[in-house]
């Protein structure tokens, strides 16, 4: 076929196609190269373990199976720090992008209703939750379970100590919330998003957060419900974008799709416009092949129905493809083209 004698169709139906193009653009919105953006999803993740570090010179007090953990300073000047962790790896798909994180805790008892800053700090080492269970309101703790409980001095009592007394955690807070009277409180920040993303990408570093109250003044302790408390347990609300799924590419002679008149390796409304303009006798596109195709493509590049003409039928087929409708006419690869119009 002579490339210089590509048949053109008069501008019949150009107005109709232009109107259809407006509808298509409104329906599909902006299109980037490649696959469309994945939709944001959300889920709630319950805590998998929690505990309290009770300030204790012997490091032998814990509350792994208790209904509460504590943060702040008691009326006799003893510090309490909470620990809480979530199974991010098994809750989110690998490769997801975390876009939002909110921690919800129920504060069920306090020495005073005054508002106190309660911080989350990323824990830097693994720790345990044993079967110790403190009596009463649980403020004094219980004897730590050997080998499984975290305490003031030990990650796993009594053999594996913390590097720092009172727990190993990042000095900078990931988030802070003001906690006053009994009620439900939330923490959310960009750093919490970074923490959860890091735990998803590197599960071996997921040790959760340490919950740190006001330790500068006595009588600031806040009591929070643990995973053993039932409906008021700690949970994370996470929003994320799933990883983009990619199918097996179709082997081709070149990276372009039939109809890619801009030679940008993508099929979009710009290509439809160029075909419409060509059929109306206006500016043409790369209808004899993209620059690096050489002479191996004698077909008209954009001739989606392989009828040796570039016309409104090709533009209509491309527009129908963009909105996900059945292709009219049915587009099969031309005998001498490397690839038909494909997603």
Describe this structure in words.
The chain has 343 residues and is of the alpha+beta class. It folds into two domains: 3-35 and 247-322, no CATH class; 41-241, Sandwich (Jelly Rolls), CATH 2.60.120. 14% of the residues lie in helices and 26% in strands. It has helices at 14-28, 190-201, 269-279, 312-322, and strands at residues 7-8, 41-54, 61-62, 68-73, 79-86, 97-110, 116-122, 142-143, 154-156, 160-161, 175-179, 183-188, 209-212, 222-225, 235-241, 309-310. The strands form four sheets. It has a six-stranded antiparallel barrel. A two-stranded parallel sheet has the order 1-16. A two-stranded antiparallel sheet has the order 3-8. The radius of gyration is 32 Å and the shape is elongated. The two termini are 28 Å apart. Residues 1-12, 30-36, 249-256, 292-299, 327-333 and 335-343 have low confidence and may be disordered.
N/C terminus separation: 28 Å
Largest sheet: 6 strands, antiparallel, barrel
> Portion of residues in helices?
10-25%
- Content-based structural category: alpha+beta
Number of domains: 2
Might you state the CATH topology name of the largest domain? Answer: Jelly Rolls
Question: Tell me, what's the shape?
Answer: elongated
CATH architecture label of the largest domain = Sandwich
Number of helices: 4
- How confident is the prediction overall: mean pLDDT? 81
Radius of gyration: 32 Å
Low-confidence stretches: 1-12, 30-36, 249-256, 292-299, 327-333, 335-343
Taken as a percent bin, the fraction of beta residues is: 25-35%
Q: How would you spell out the order of helices and strands?
A: EHEEEEEEEEEEEHEEEHEH
Number of strands: 16
Lateral strand order in the biggest sheet: 2-5-4-14-6-15
Q: Which CATH C-level class of the largest domain is it?
A: Mainly Beta
């Amino acid at each position: 076929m002579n490339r210089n004698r590509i048949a053109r169709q008069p501008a019949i139906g150009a107005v109709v196609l232009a109107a259809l193009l407006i509808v298509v653009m409104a329906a599909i919105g902006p299109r980037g190269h490649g696959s469309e953006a994945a939709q944001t999803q959300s889920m709630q993740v319950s805590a998998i373990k929690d505990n309290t570090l009770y300030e204790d010179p012997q490091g032998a007090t814990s509350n792994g199976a208790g209904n509460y953990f504590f943060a702040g300073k008691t009326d006799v000047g003893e510090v309490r720090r909470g620990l809480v962790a979530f199974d991010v790896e098994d809750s989110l798909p690998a490769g997801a992008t975390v876009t939002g994180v909110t921690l919800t805790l129920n504060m069920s008892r306090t020495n005073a209703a005054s508002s106190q800053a309660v911080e989350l700090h990323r824990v830097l080492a693994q720790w345990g939750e044993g079967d110790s269970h403190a009596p009463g309101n649980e403020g004094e703790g219980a004897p730590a379970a050997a080998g499984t409980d975290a305490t003031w001095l030990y990650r796993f009592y009594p053999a594996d100590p913390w590097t720092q007394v009172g727990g190993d955690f990042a000095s900078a807070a990931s988030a802070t919330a003001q906690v006053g009277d009994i009620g439900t409180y939330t923490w959310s920040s960009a750093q919490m998003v970074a923490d959860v993303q890091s735990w998803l990408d590197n599960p071996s570093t997921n040790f959760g957060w340490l919950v740190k109250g006001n330790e500068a003044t006595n009588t600031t302790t806040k009591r929070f419900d643990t995973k053993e408390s039932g409906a008021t347990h700690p949970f994370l609300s996470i929003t994320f974008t799933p990883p983009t799924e990619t199918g097996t590419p179709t082997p081709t002679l070149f990276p372009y799709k039939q109809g890619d008149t801009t030679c940008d390796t993508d099929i979009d409304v710009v290509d439809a416009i160029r075909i419409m303009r060509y059929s109306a006798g206006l500016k043409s596109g790369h209808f004899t092949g993209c620059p690096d195709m050489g002479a191996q493509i004698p077909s008209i590049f954009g001739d989606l129905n392989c009828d040796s003409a570039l016309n409104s039928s090709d533009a209509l087929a491309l527009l129908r493809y963009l909105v996900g409708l059945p292709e009219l006419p049915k587009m099969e690869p031309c005998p001498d083209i490397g690839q038909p119009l494909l997603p």
